[in-house]
Structures are given as structure tokens and as C-alpha cells.
Amino acid sequence: GTGSEAEARPLGPGCGSLEAISAVVILLDSRDVPHGLSDLLDAAEEARIGVLMLIDDAGRRRADVAGAAVESIDADDATVSAVLRGMLGRQQEIERLGRELAVATRFTGGLRGEIQRMQEELQLAAQVQREFLPRTFPEVGGIRVDAFWRPASYVSGDVYEVDRVDERHLGVFIADAVGHGVPAALLTMVICRGLPAKEVGNGTYRILPPSEALARINADMISHQGRTTRFATAVYCVIDTTTGRTTLSAAGHPHPVILRADGTMELVEAPGGLLGVFEDETYGDVELELRPGDRLLLHSDGFEQAFPGDPEGTRHARLPTKRYLDEFMAVRDAPDVSAFVQQVARRIDMQFGSVHQADDITLLVVERTAAGEGAA
After folding, report:
1. Residues 142, 148: contact at Cβ < 8 Å?
2. What is the pLDDT of residues 175-234, one digit of tens each?
3. Cα dist. 152→5, 39, 178, 258, 312 in Å?
């Protein structure tokens, strides 16, 4: 209505049931003082009821008309009727959307809780995986070992193990499951724990050649496979810590690298397919010698994307490259294995996209120090 003290009453008991109201029409001219208008508009918005305000220019300046349809107070009957028909016609759709919004809000709350629960479980899985990895490495003879391990997500599909096989032999193992996330992490943990280092019986033992150890892992994986086939790559080597003689076998894994003390680099090629593919797969042993000052690097294929080919970060930046070999050579003068690992880690951190790395990254550095020089 109009008048010098017109007051808008909030929607509620005084106006009857909200369900019975289809629309609200408000007249406001220059003489009206819009007491309670904001409360009425808020209540109408909460109840999803359309509001039409017929207002003059002076009243428009004094009233908050957000959330309402506005026409001139002098509008003809046809205009007012058309606006009301439009508001009433869309009311059913607004109510439907409101119901869907309420359902979506409930689902969103449940989904948020489920995501939080999954994140907590993944954090726990990551903690468990880290606890299973070696924290310290055995120092046998003149052999020293250190490792760099960085998952692309919560958990890693890379795993490694360094064990003392007997008084003079050290077993060094690295594996990379094909894929990412929890399934890959579980597979590599099973592989690592099932690695057969030696055969014990009749009061003696036999150190298994790396090729035989990988063949046994391959057979075990195939025998336990269900409908989903899981693959992995691996390298296993047994090092005589007295002489530096090393026997190495690989299963489809990136070639190990030897940084010689004289500054040269060698790639160790070993035959053998992926673990978990063919039941009759055979693996060969490669014999090599680590001389004092030599370093053997076992790494996962994440290094092929750790150093982008284009430092500017174009769409080709994440294609696999061999730049990591240059990076290994660049830090070859590091004083020990720990310093070598730290310098490689810093170089990775300096790369484009290192915060969101494309793949799990693992590096094992094995060095024969001058302490092993005396034996041959």
C-alpha cells in the first residue's frame, strides 16, 4: 500500500502459510518509509517466493530491490499481469531446482566426508610404506649405499631393498610396478618382501644368482594373478664387498649406470622381460666389477621425465628424455653417496613442474670406496 508510514510485514503466521503464497506484490512510492522491507525480501527468497515491486524513482533510491522484479508504480495492468504470469509460471521449476539443490547439498556433505576419510587412509598407507623402506644401509667392506625416493602421489609404485646376504655379500634391489597409486604400491611391497636372496638347507646356504631370484619372483607373480594382470620392472644385484665383483640381472628395467672413478660413464645392459608377463621368461646375469671410486646407479624410469627436455615448459616438456644422464655426470664429483643423492635431489627440485612430478622417482647409489682397494 502507500502512505507516509507504510510497513512491510515479514512473511509468517500473520500472512498465513508460506505454502499458500504464490507471489508477493509490493507498492512503494516516494511517501512510503520501507520499514521491514529487507526482512520481507529475505523471507521471500528463503521460501523461494517471487516478489514484484511497483516503485517510483524516489522509492527506488531508498529501498534495496535486489532479489525482486521491479516495475514502475505507474505500469499498466497488462505489464503487471505479464510479469506476474511469468513469475508464477517459473515457480514450479524453481521449486524443483530447490529440491534438487537440497539433495545435492546432502550428497556433497557426504562426499566431502568420504574424500576426507580416503585422504586419511592414503596418508596412513604412505606412512606404512615409508616405514617398510630401509632407513639406514649396511656398510659392508668398502661398499656404501644411499637412496633417493620420492612418490608422485601419496604412495609410490617404486620400492627398493638393501640387505646383507652374508658376511661379504650385499644384495641391492629396486622394482617399479607399472602404474601408480595404491595397487602399484601394494604390488612392489609384495615383490620386495618375496625376494629370495639365498637358499638355506643341510647346515649350509647358497646365494641365489640374481637371474634365478628374478625368475622365482616372476613365477610367483604369475601363479597369484587373478583376472587383472600386474606388471613390474626390477634390477637385482649381488655385490662381493671384498672384491667389488658384482652380478646383476634386470627385468625390463632402465639400464643401470656406472660412473667410473676415471670420469667415464657406462650403461649396463641386461636381458630379461617384465615381471608377471610370461611364465617361461628367462633372465640373464651380467658380471661387472666395481673398482675403488666407482659408483653404480640403479634408478626408476621416473628420471626420464624428472628433467624436462624444454626448460620453458612447453607441451613437449614431459616427454621422456636422457637428460638425467647428464645430470648424473654433473654431480659425479660429490664426495660421497649421501652428497651425490642430495645434489641430485636439488637438481630435480629446480626443474619445471617438480612440485607435480609426472612419475615416482627412485635412485640407489652404490659406491666402492678406497676401503675396498686392498682385496682383489
Report:
1. no
2. 998 877 787 888 888 888 778 888 888 888 899 999 999 999 998 888 877 666 688 999
3. 68, 53, 13, 26, 21
pLDDT one-digit tens code per residue, 197-214: 888 888 888 999 999 999
Task: Spell out a b/e string for 77-103, using b for 16 or more CB atoms within 10 Å of the CB, else e.
Answer: eeeeeebbeebeeeeeeeeeeeeeeee
- Grid coordinates of 108: 556433497
Give the span between the Cα atoms of 238 and 194, in whole angstroms.
Answer: 16
State the first-to-last Cα distance of the chain, in angstroms, to the nearest integer.
108
Are 263 and 254 in contact by the 8 Å Cβ rule? The answer is: no
**Identity at 101, one-letter amino acid code:** L
Kindly state the helix (H) or strand (E) to which residue 267 belongs, with its residue range. strand 265-267
b/e per residue 268-297 (b: at least 16 CB within 10 A):
bebebbbbbbeeebebebbebebeeebbbb
CA distance 218 to 227: 17
Element (H, E) at 211: helix 210-223
Model confidence at 67, pLDDT cuts 50, 70, 90, reads low
Distance between CA atoms of residues 354 and 304, nearest Å: 13
Calpha distance 354→338 (Å, rounded)? 21
User: CA 107 from chain center: how many Å?
Assistant: 25
Comparison of pLDDT for 28 and 238, the residue scoring more: 238
Q: What is the pTM of this model?
A: 0.68
Region label for 264, one of left (φ > 0), alpha (ψ between -120 and 50) or beta (otherwise): beta
Sign of the dihedral defined by the CA atoms of residues 6, 9, 14, 15, in that order = positive
> Quick one: cell of 286?
651380467
* Helix ranges restricted to H, 36-180: 37-46, 57-62, 77-132
For residue 144, the cross-strand partners are 367
